[in-house]
User: Fold these one by one.
Assistant:
Number 1:
Amino acid sequence: MVGRNEVVSPHVFLIKVRHQAFVNNNYLIVDPVSHQAVVVDPAWEMDKIQVELEHAQATLSGILITHSHHDHINLAKPMADFYNCPIWMSQREIQSSGFSSRHLIALDDTAFHVGGLSIQPILTPGHTPGCVCFLIGNNLFSGDVLFAEGCGICMDLESAYAMFDSLELLKAVIKPDTHVFPGHTYMRSPGQNFGDLLGYNIYLNFPDKYAFAAFRLRKGQKRENLLAFR
Ligand SMILES: [Fe+2]
């Protein structure tokens, strides 16, 4: 029984999905009261997501897209059609990518609700022009902006500067005990505390955008690393 003013934590389920060299983290976030759910960046293996929905006895009510790279939007349209639910993507990402769907809803940084889930978009350009992270309860879904040990690749100086500003914004607004759920896993498992990332993620520890950009765009990075940290 839930009291009227009681805040109920959303349930987060990790779904590992694969296609060829791609390994992505999909997340199902379920409101335990209404049993409405949203999925973040669905790709590759719809059956796995559907199994998780069934286990959670939840209804898919929306699709959150952190950015428009193929490995993050692969299932957005088919799932939106199947479940007749919205796809949320930032306005800037829609404009820069040309992504379209009759289910598409443009985001800014205004919070919105799905059932009892309060979803706060945080605009974090850099990896792409319209990247967005989603804060839901005590959980940050960071796409390819922030990984446990790194951050997404940046294509040029301008995007590296933007990424620095985005990471500084996260440092300003995200509480240390927030769980970070990135789009890809490298060494540490998803759900690390943001406060711990501040200690070991070098990209959160540059003094200014110039030093950050020089390191992020450094020569000699292995191609496999560039691909992995996309
Ligand atoms: Fe990406």
Number 2:
Amino acid sequence: MLKDWLRPYVRPLPQWSPVAIVPPSQIVVATLRWVGNSADVTTDHTVASLNPLMIATSFDAGQLPTLEYSDSATGKALGILRLVRADSIAAEEAAITLYHVKAGAHRCLGWPRRSWNAWLQNRSMLKNRASGHLNMEPAAAQHLMIAYLRPRPVVLVSVDAPGHRNIFPMDLIGPLERSGFFSLALRSTNVSQPIMREVRRVALSSMPASMKATVYKLSEHHKQPLANWDALPFPLRPSREFGIPAVAAALRVRELTIVHSQEIGLHTFFLCRIASDENWAEGDQLHHTAGFHQAYRHRQGMPFKEV
Ligand SMILES: Cc1cc2nc3c(=O)[nH]c(=O)nc-3n(C[C@H](O)[C@H](O)[C@H](O)COP(=O)(O)O)c2cc1C
């Protein structure tokens, strides 16, 4: 058994911490900065793909903007990503800009623990490469953890089409507020991805933190469709307009109409419009944040509730 004081020196922090947060949360704010300008993009940026790691936002912030995450209560800068403009997507009357993440740094751990922890994490990722679970380079994974400084809510996505039904967890999702889109970044190998491009509608159930184990178990449905809605271990309730089976215990259910989809690296990036939005309950929603963010909050005496 490792002594508590020794643990941080030999074991990396987890890359992700599952935590319970009551939505909507503004605990961490995101600011996009570019020559002489800045914009609050807390609810207007999202991950568009993991490999390459790309960020999407409604703002065109020139060639080399930065994306900064800070604690809204204390103003403390938690981390920064350096972006390079890559492309834009025109959909309906709006435009979305895509940026490559070129560099990044966080300030959740002091030096030298920051570098040592990154080294331990990277070493462990490279070991897992052999088992085929590493789908991005360690440097990009470090940048992705910085993007998770703003805790990302977890939803279950329901797909219902003739001859195909499915429900699986996602957290690479989010509003692009200024343009009114809601985006999803889904690995193109997901078994429902071609069906979603065809039927162009899904329902998102915002998941209570208490259902973490059930949510994680459903990740197998990224690879195989659901045989039968009755096979699920929880009650369902039809979504308002489309009648898609959603989780009856969800905090909130949104129906999305997919208006644009394109492949970006290993992911399919969906731009959607919200067709309906219903609050079914209040309470803690399952979120993911970076392990070093939770470690920082522990040191400040204000950890997120762990689940
Ligand atoms: C809580 C949770 C959220 C996930 N969010 C996404 C997502 O947003 N996009 C995606 O393509 N896959 C998502 N996945 C799927 C995983 O990345 C992975 O593909 C899946 O769990 C299968 O794992 P494996 O390929 O390592 O076997 C999520 C999985 C979990 C458990």
